[in-house]
Queue: 4 jobs
Job 1
Amino acid sequence: MTISKNGENRVDMTRRVDVTGFTKPLRYPKTRGMIDTFGQNKESFPQLLSIFFDKDVKTENDPHDDEAIIKEKKISHFYKEANRKSSFRADLFFNFEKRKIVFEYNGWHHYTDHFKMDRDERKKDAFQKQNIEIYTFPYYLQLTKDIAKYLFKKNFGVFSEEKYKKALEKIYRVENETEILAPGWHTTRNTPANFIPKGIKKLINEVHGMPKSTKSQLVHSLKLYMARSNGRTHMIVPENNIDFDNFMNHKIEKEDLNYFFQSDV
């Protein structure tokens, strides 16, 4: 936009900067779907599992059979240190080919809160003692095809092109993979700069096991966000952390970036 002053036209830069001094991000062309809900809460995650596992999603109190995906499933265990029974709630629990499966959606506080991370470790240990497999979906991911294959083909053999297309249509409301938001951090304030040291290690370790394309997308999103911060990079990435510096030095492959990056201004 241009404004006139003393007969001269100039760009109104104030409209391009937000209250934190960051250049404003691009508008996402889609107004509904996972872009609005998946990175903010768990709303779309049960639907995602329902598509790939062909199962209904129920609450624990709903009438259901043994094949349903149960939200907020209460799982008891014996807490040896306190000499009493206790319980954890699993975000999503279901049976799959004689396997007991738990999926957890991990929001930002799973990287910033010592007590939350300690509880996560105790929950994982309690579930494993009951032969329950636990899988996590971090808040910074999106459903690229590589991630879908990583989660559903590698671990369960339930990935198909048809299911992936259905997930794009139902959750993102798009037809093409290139139209979805890229994995990473785009406008959220819950950036790695807020992670505790243990959370940084957790991020690096879990990304190490993911497809290489995902790491390129994560690093690229942070570099774009840093550029948009107009010098306030300490709000995006942690300072004086060698491990994270090495993470950011990852060589980005351009062919992995064919998604929507909201900070690409």
Job 2
Amino acid sequence: MPKQTHTTLIEAVHRDRDARRAVILALVLLSVWLLLLAAFHFLPALDVAMSAAFFEATACAEGTADGIVCGDFPYQRDTLFVFLRQMLFYMPSLAAVVVIIALVRALQHHGATYQPRKVRDYAISLLTLFIGPYVVVNLLLKSFSGRPRPHQTDIFGGELPFMPAGSFAGGCENNCSFISGEAAGAGWLICLIPLLSEKMRPVFGPALIAVSLVTPAFRVSFGGHYLSDVVLGWLSSPAVFAALLAVFEIARVRKNTL
């Protein structure tokens, strides 16, 4: 893109309120994500303290070497909590089916009844679910981060050394702790609230918020993730949603300007 055209596009985005807000939101969320990553990386005691609150130490078996920590996370054995976690695990998938149905129905309208903004928002939400929780989190970060889960680390009854958030030097080989896929899926549910009509938001909004917050809490209490994993995982989905929204808004402005 020529420099003059590039400058014209930037000016056009700045003048367009929706595009400007979308870009600012995306930059803010990305900045917050990076700042939180830095905070958790340089203050690893935050992760250790939170996981320690749910860890129950027990006496080691006779003959266990000195310095070995024995115990587990008792909530992961609680039948009710396990059931609730499994139920919440499928909520993003069920919500995605609802969004797909809504998108198909919206695409069936033509002419005066066709709502391009609604179609765009549905598409962005589905793209967010695919790019964020699936590609970025599960296929990339969790596969290559190397960070052991709390129950895998030697300070909580495991065998691998603790690694701070953002370190890729851990001994986990696959499906690692950084960052939480379930928390990312839960964070995606928050992105659906703007898609609800004004009448439906008071009905379904609180439920989406509750599921979105309880799911990451279960992962920490079960020893499946550190606090940083769920916080950064949760925030990753709104950040991806905002980034995609900014891309769509910039494309709209570019189409109307150049």
Job 3
Amino acid sequence: MSIASRSGHASTARDLVKRLIKTNEFTALQMVYDAALDSFLPQIGDVITDLIIESKNSAADIFKQIEESVERVSHMSKYMGNSTKLAAVKNEYRQLQGRLNIANYFEIKDVESQAQKILESFQALFREVNENRAYFELREIAEAALKDFRSDESDLKKPLASLEDDLKAADAELEKLEKTYPPDREEQYIKKNVVIKGKVEVVEQKVEASVSWRKQKVFLFLKSIIGCLFALLVVMVITCIFLFMKMEISIVTYMVIAIFLLFTPLYGTIGGEVFYYNVEMKRKKFIEKIDKFTKMIEIKRPRVEEDIQKLKEIYAASISEKSKLSKDSSMQILEASIKGNFEQIKRFLT
């Protein structure tokens, strides 16, 4: 009795053949060319026809899912990092659509397989777009919070920034003064308060040895100039008085003038000392200013930092409320945004 006539085993054999062909497509060719199965060729043909229909239906279902994925991804294209990737997958899908009506089993299986790969590509794109959308939405929340935070932080820092500017100005004035009128000192390393990135820090600086400007020739020259100018002024005053009073200039007048001129070195010494005193008072004033501003900054900075920390907590709470993330995560997002490291936000989306 032939296999075809055994109706009791036909259904089982049909299912077996279908499973074999599904497992290995080339089994169909082996069956067709196997002489022992010649009497079962009609049933094999029916099985292959069924498989073609199943594959077409499966491919059609996949195509439908692809269409839905294309629509979803296209609506969110602004969140796509690489638009060429979407165009490439779309082009691949269009080329595949024309092959759906092929009646060849092997080709329709290839269409089904390719469609599944394209669907997976679209699904991967959709996941990527969703991740990007979540990132950009969270980034928008963080940037909005950062903008308001910067504004409020600036207001909190204004008094401190003003003191730091005053410290810089006083330090610059002292440095300028000491270049022109150096003090008497040996080479040494001194600790100096400087503003670095908005913070007053104590740094060690090398100070070159210098001779007091009072001991240099420039001071002697200065005294000479002051003495001569003062003596000249006295002579001019006496002369003007005589001319104004219309008095006759006598030998006594010349003697008085000569006596005044003899005291020219004294005038220079007195004038030089007065000038020296003024310079040193300026130096002392600048040093006192620097000490004063430094102490004020040291007192004010912890308060400002405490206020800024409270401000961060307020904006972290705002981010947490809008993003539904924990307060700790929101604080880290705010800190990353302050540093400009927006890419770090992505790790809170996993």
Job 4
Amino acid sequence: MSPARADRVKPRVLVCSPIPVVRIGSAWHTLDLWARDINAQADIADITLRCAVVVTTSDALAPLAPGIAVVTDDDRLADVISQTDFIQIPGNAGWLTSKPYLPILRWAKRFDKPVFLGISSNRARTYTMNATGKSLSARSKALLQFVDIRVTQLLLASRCAGVFVVGEGLRKLVWPVARDVHVGVASWVDADDIAPPRPDHDRPLRVCMAGRLEPMKGFHLGIEAFSRAGPDRFAALTLIGRGAAQDALQEQAERAGLPNFTIRPPVGYPAPFFRFLDEQDVVLMTNLNDEQPRLIFDAISRGCIPLCPDTPPYRALGLDPRILYEQGSAASLAERLCSLADPALRLPLGRAIAAQATTYTVHTMHRDRLNWMTDVVARR
């Protein structure tokens, strides 16, 4: 019998993850961002998590929901898989990281259980983009990583019942190999996190960016755009993140003469990060890849105005064209940023964007995916 739809019966889902868990007291803990995701999924499905267990970790941790079962022993896989309705495996890495999922595919085939591959980023392209301008050795290594990931993704996609990707820009990674593709989002915003509409103001705007400090993120474009827009029009540009590009970004801001530029270390998620966003007005989305970062939904939910590349992942969200700019162009981004200094434009634009916040929540994301998986199985 096919699993019932997500809104009728809680299906049983085996989620395989490379992110480990650690036992603290009587509860399992994991990376705070991942805990938020998997706990939300546990609200609509009975979750069994297949992952490694570590003794300690330096990551910011959060507890898993009590109902989530953790399986670390491959000897139990047959029993778990035989009783599950859906299986999810990750598809962002290369062969060595993905190899442990092959036994799961074999057991799933034996018990006629559907396996779904999840791809949340174009990590293969990220490696090559971050290696641009580096040594021949670094570029060669990045190219090998690119090939490794892409071949692995295509192989896994061909053996799965379907593939779910984050953002329209990633569909091409598995087309036409995948049997079925679901284009979703990566939102960790709960309905309770959505802030009420902000009152408008006529003061210098506070602008921010956030993410790993690496070339692919395009933060250098944000700094250039802020400089072009005229920093005297804005209160500050703040960048939250950590990474290899930090010194280069700081030096770029100093050369541009931006005294109101600050790089801050990452903060916890969700409450500390949301408090930071509550102090900002504009979020610059400067990603040079074809991904759809979760930051777009964080920004919208807290009343910030995001400025986004005019690319498929963002256009597919139905965003107002006035917040879209030419990807990779600091001049285009600066033009959009300057336009927001006008309260007559900013007020209606902010209200229109805020109205979209309830459309993209973590629970909506998981319900849509669960219903898609159910439909795929029903069509088999």
